[in-house]
Specification:
The chain is α+β, with helices and mostly antiparallel strands and 203 residues long. The chain has a single domain, classed as Fumarylacetoacetase-like, C-terminal domain (Fumarylacetoacetate hydrolase, domain 2), CATH 3.90.850.10. The chain contains 4 helices and 15 strands. The structure holds magnesium ion.
Length: 203
């Protein structure tokens, strides 16, 4: 499986990192080794001094697709979860300055904790899903799927022009404003609505 991540999908987050609001989705890929499932800790890597959290809704892909039309895209995901796109912001800054790929800042082991998934039928409105992140029980990020620049269908249609989606792939759909640093011993809790979906210790 692969983990596809959308960047700069919320206007206020693009602005907080001084990035332009994109005309097309920006995406990158994390390998399977980035995945950590609920209950496992995140081990702070030795190559960064500025690991940031980015809380994101995550789609679970349920069938193979290439060149998926936007009008059919909703049939290619069946469940929604929440994840954290951990980012070595100091390393990413150097990548950006040098025009280098982002893998060293984004694709490292453990950089993609993902919760269990909820069937999409459980959501009253897929375009109005509230989600949030608390660091040490203080609210730090708050988002709503209706605030995305590119909605779930547009993301699936765009990404599948380039990369075949397969059953079991995950798509991180971008983070709202409020990203920030973690240090060892911090705790992160991610919520969909009021439901606590992830509880991660930084070690
Ligand atoms: Mg992200």
């Amino acid at each position: 499986m692969k983990i596809i991540c959308i960047g700069r999908n919320y206007v206020e987050h693009a602005q907080e990192l001084n990035n332009p609001v994109p005309a097309d989705p920006v995406f990158f890929i994390k390998p399977e080794t980035a995945l950590i499932r609920a209950g496992m800790p995140f081990f702070y890597p030795d190559f960064s001094n500025d690991i940031h959290y980015e809380v994101e809704l995550v789609l679970h892909i349920c069938k193979v697709g290439k060149h998926i039309q936007e009008k059919f895209a909703h049939t290619y995901y069946d469940k929604i979860g929440i994840g954290i796109d951990f980012t070595a912001r100091d390393v990413q800054k150097i990548c950006k300055e040098k025009g280098l790929p982002w893998e060293v800042a984004k694709a490292f082991d453990g950089s993609a904790p993902v919760s269990k998934f909820l069937p999409k039928e459980e959501f009253a409105d897929l375009y109005d899903i509230n989600f949030s992140l608390a660091k040490n029980d203080q609210l730090v990020q708050q988002g709503n799927s209706g605030m995305m620049i590119f909605n779930f269908e547009k993301i699936i249609a765009y990404v599948s022009r380039f990369v075949t989606l397969k059953m079991g792939d995950f798509i991180f759909t971008g983070t709202p404003a409020g990203v920030g640093s973690v240090v060892k011993e911090d705790n992160l809790k991610a919520f969909i609505g009021d439901k606590r979906m992830l509880d991660i210790k930084i070690k």
